[in-house]
Amino acid sequence: MYLGLDLGTSGLRALLTDPAGRVIDSAEAGYDNPHPHAGWSEQDPADWIAACESAIGALKSRNAAAVADIKGIGLSGQMHGATLLDSAGQVLRPCILWNDTRSSAEAAALDATPKMRDITGNIVFPGFTAPKLLWVAKHEPEVFARTAKILLPKDYLRFWLTGELVADQSDAAGTSWLDTGARAWSGDALKAGGLTEDHMPSLVEGSEVSGMLRSSLKEAWGIRAPVVVAGGAADNAAAACGAGCFAEGQGFVSLGTSGVLLAAKDSYAPAPETAVHTFCHAVPARWYQMGVILAATDSLNWLARNLGQTPSDLARALPDQITGPNRAMFLPYLSGERTPHNNAALRGSFVGLDIASDPQALTAAVMEGVAYALRDNLEALKATGTELSSVLALGGGARSRFWLETIATLFDMPLRLPADGEFGAAMGAVRLAMAAAEEASLEEIMTQPDIAETIDPRAELSEAYEAGYQRYAALAPALIADAERAGL
Q: Which residues cross the membrane (predicted)?
């Protein structure tokens, strides 16, 4: 049996499968995401461990025999988090998460450092790990002085599982300390942040063995044989493995908390000036590019919270078929934006509201605004030379036909909906565990899911939505100027 552990922003998911990848069982456990100050986002790593113990305990209670036969464990996790350990391996402060924007000034300074973009292949975004350490050095110097190791969130979970201090290249690529082309830590990038390679975990490919499950956990969980723990992957790289997107031209659009448009690449071809991320894939000699918006379903969650309704109720109130863009328009910059603006100070806005605007009109505007922002990502990917002819549609937001038709029409590209089954980050973690434990080829393991339906663009509406997109794109500069005037 194989176990995939996906350490998300709001909870941990454990997925148990047989050798063919058929799901035996799954379990989830949540945890808090405190925001102690404006722009801050933190978590206690102890909560991740408690969630893992809870999820595996639930699996064991229902499927003890299957858990006893676990042969490999794969890990997936939220990117960019800074988990700081002292020389004894103790956590020094809460982990600073990917959606924390406190280090925007440090990110700008680091991004301006000569050769940083050349080394990492990316802009230094405020959410990345390296600027967080500069912030800690400035504001919490006693913590910085005691920091012996810096781990990404899933790699702290690995440390608990195996006792090994290891990261994989796909996750390490989001730190701004990795030479992304060479797939190795960069001494120059680390030096720019006042660090050395001694502060870093060792590196493995996501499909390689990173360690063995500790004997005490094997006994506690009733597992009989030795268990390998794979290198694993950053959440989006793991999702790409779960969906079989690891070759040139394969990709997906994900409507989760954040929004992602990802394209797998056979070669390393960064274009940081576009604000497109270029990261190592979870498998050897592969990379991927992605555009990221920070608030996709989070925008709908925000609206639902303020209207006193549930996101699903708001989504269900919209028709399945689109009829054309709304006059009201929403710019989904609730937490700043990554691609293409790279601006932590940007904030969201409604434009064109009418006295007759009701919850349905606001919901449509929010969904369209997210779709417009994803179109920005597509244009940024195109500017790098990346071409996609169709993409898989993943994430909770993909349950909305209205949302999918809007995106397909704005992309002028079919969206393929996978058939029922597992193909997300947890399944990607399972597949990486299989790759580490078995002799099968990646092509045999990383297959694409069966397609249940294809959502085609509405050609008769393409001109109207193109005009809507041009209107949307013209509004962002005004919001950027407003943020600058506000001194944000």
A: none
DSSP state of 231: -
Q: Give the tokens for residue 467.
A: 């005009």
β-strands 72-77, 228-230 pairing:
parallel
Please indicate, yes or no, whether the overall pTM of this predicted structure exceeds 0.85.
Answer: yes
Q: pLDDT, tens digit, for every residue of 267-289?
A: 998 999 888 999 999 999 999 99
HSE (side-chain half, CA atoms, 13 Å) at 138 = 11
pLDDT tens readout for residues 165-222: 999 999 999 999 999 999 999 999 999 999 999 999 999 999 999 999 999 999 999 9
Give the Cα-Cα-Cα angle 163, 166, 171 (nearest 5 degrees).
135
Q: What is the C-alpha separation between 206 and 76, in angstroms, rounded?
A: 10
CA distance 317 to 187: 54
The residues pairing with 29 across neighbouring beta strands, listed in sequence order, are: 12
Euclidean distance between CA atoms 4 and 423, whole angstroms? 12
- Return d(Cα 324, Cα 174) in angstroms, integer: 38
Q: Which amino acid is at 25?
A: D
Q: Is 281 annotated as a binding residue?
A: no
The answer to whether 277 is annotated as binding is no
The DSSP-derived string for 39-108 is T--EE-HHHHHHHHHHHHHHHHHH-HHHHHT--EEEEEE-SS-BEEE-TTS-B-SPEEPTT--TTHHHHH
Active site residues: 235
At which residue do the structure tokens 């996906």 appear? 6
Nearest Cα residue to 243 out of 76, 412, 24, 457 = 76
Euclidean distance between CA atoms 46 and 33, whole angstroms: 13
pLDDT score recorded for residue 487: 64
| DSSP conformational letter for 32 | -
Burial of 320 (0-12, 13-18, 19+ CB in 10 A): exposed
Give the whole-angstrom CA distance, residue 333 versus residue 346. Answer: 6
Q: Are 392 and 252 in contact (CB under 8 A)?
A: yes
The DSSP secondary structure of 350-409, one letter per residue, reads EES--TT--HHHHHHHHHHHHHHHHHHHHHHHHHTT---S-EEEESGGGG-HHHHHHHHH
Decide the pairing of beta strands 209-212 and 23-30: unpaired
- Supply the angle between the helices 359-383 and 462-485 in degrees, to the nearest 10: 90
Pairing type for strands 178-179 and 184-185 reads: antiparallel
